[in-house]
From TrEMBL:
InterPro entries: TMTC_O-mannosyltransferase, TPR-like_helical_dom_sf, TPR_rpt. PROSITE patterns: PROKAR_LIPOPROTEIN. It comes from Nonomuraea insulae. Pfam families: TPR_19 (PF14559). It comes from the Bacteria. This is Tetratricopeptide repeat protein.
């Protein structure tokens, strides 16, 4: 999930952005300092109660395909907000149970089909998500959530023309929070920050419950962070946690912003709280510890990551992007290249192109790395990490002016993109001054 301009036509994106902003922007352009609406009347969200209610109903009606599908989606939501992959197995079990049960028309319950597509996306089986999504579209073309499944899958596969066309169908048929947040992502990928922000504000305004509001605020926080607005990121992530204290990705986003602002003790507490709930963020936590001089603490976090992914691999679940990225930065670059070449065969996205380019650079293959780094940049988005990696590669090739340009761009996009990366970029620029 490679993003190139010919796969996401400029005219199509401009028209999509204009239509969305004309029809759905809340009262025109929001000022940068205008506070987004908050969930004043909402109490902290407790998804476990909904899960328990569905389970209780199924004890009395074990052959209710609709409730099994609903339970599967609740498990997926719990996985998203907690970053706990253990819920994926529970979701799969619920969806498969729903699919086995008879329905009035003799066809599988369509929400279970769509749910299996969403689960496939969550488990990085994007080709599988396309198969489930297309199966749902043939059976029920007006079930709009299936278009979200397909849009996400095509984005991750790097098929941006298909992603845009699918999203347009979703927007035309059912403009809602799910379509606005996906449209915001497409805008962000092209570097169109303001349209992306407006769409996310619109999504926040129509969020139906605290979990949806937290998800939208988390995306606003990530958008702010990626563009160097550290305080904006902290505000958005804090609002997400006010609505849903268990939203782990927002806890990590808050910690990241706190570290950049110099609130180190609070950042460490928030990171520790997040990884206690989910090991998905142990590498990021370890990198901050390493930057602060706690090498032993960093090694403990990296060991957790290694053990987690060995266990996943033993169960047939491989995340080659995560493992390859970790190996490139903290382990064996040759192993990183192998993992990321495998991932590249699976999905040719800008994220994988950047990661493979960086791994090749770390393995000493700078010319090949440069080709992947250039491919990662072709979509036109603003990504400080991509720019930094490209600057490092250009420096290794002896291209001083190109290296300076990319390193300067990285720091201008987000001067806090990575503790180690920022220090290294500044040192390289000082050496070439």
């Amino acid at each position: 999930m490679s993003r190139v301009r010919r796969l996401l036509p400029l005219l199509g994106c401009v028209l999509l952005g204009c239509v969305l902003l004309t029809l759905y922007a809340p009262g025109g352009v929001l000022r940068r300092d205008e506070p987004p609406p908050g969930p004043v009347a909402w109490s902290p969200y407790e998804l476990a109660g909904s899960i328990e209610a569905a389970q209780n109903r199924l004890r009395g009606q074990p052959d209710d395909a609709a409730v099994w599908a609903s339970l599967g989606n609740l498990y997926l939501e719990q996985a998203r907000r907690t970053a706990d992959a253990a819920y994926y197995d529970k979701a799969q079990g619920a969806f498969e149970r729903s699919l086995r049960l008879p329905t009035a028309d003799g066809e599988p319950y369509i929400d279970a089909v769509i749910g299996m597509g969403a689960l496939s996306n969550a488990e990085h089986d994007f080709a599988g998500a396309v198969r489930w999504g297309e199966r749902a579209r043939k059976a029920a073309p007006y079930r709009w959530p299936l278009y979200g499944v397909l849009t996400d899958a095509y984005l991750e596969l790097g098929r941006y023309d298909r992603a845009e066309a699918t999203l347009r169908s979703m927007l035309n048929g059912h403009p809602d929070l799910a379509s606005f947040t996906r449209a915001a992502r497409l805008e962000q990928l092209r570097g169109r920050t303001e349209p992306a922000r407006r769409l996310l504000h619109r999504a926040c305004e129509i969020a139906g419950d605290p979990a949806e509001y937290a998800f939208c605020q988390w995306q606003l926080g990530e958008l702010a962070w990626s563009n160097g607005d550290t305080r904006g990121a902290l505000t958005a992530h804090s609002q997400a946690l006010a609505a849903d204290p268990g939203h782990v990705p927002s806890r990590v986003g808050k910690a990241r912003a706190e570290a950049a602002l110099g609130h180190t003790d609070q950042a460490l507490r928030d990171y520790a709280s997040a990884v206690a709930r989910s090991p998905s963020f142990v590498v990021e936590y370890g990198e901050l510890l390493e930057h602060l001089g706690d090498r032993a603490g960093a090694r403990r976090q990296y060991a957790v990551f290694t053990a987690q992914h060995k266990l996943l691999a033993a169960n047939g679940v491989a995340d080659d992007l995560a493992v390859g990225t970790f190996e490139a930065n903290h382990g064996d670059p040759e192993s990183a290249v192998r993992h990321l070449r495998t991932e590249w065969k699976r999905r040719q996205s800008v994220e994988v192109a950047d990661a493979l380019g960086w791994a090749l650079h770390r393995a000493g293959r700078h010319a090949e790395a440069a080709a992947y780094a250039a491919r990662a940049a072709k979509l036109g988005g603003l990504n400080a990490v991509f720019a930094y990696h490209r600057g490092e590669i250009e420096h290794a090739l002896g291209h001083t002016s190109g290296a300076c340009a990319h390193l300067t761009r990285a720091l201008s996009i987000n001067p806090h993109f990575s503790p180690a990366g920022v220090s290294r970029a500044r040192a390289l620029l000082a050496d070439t001054a």
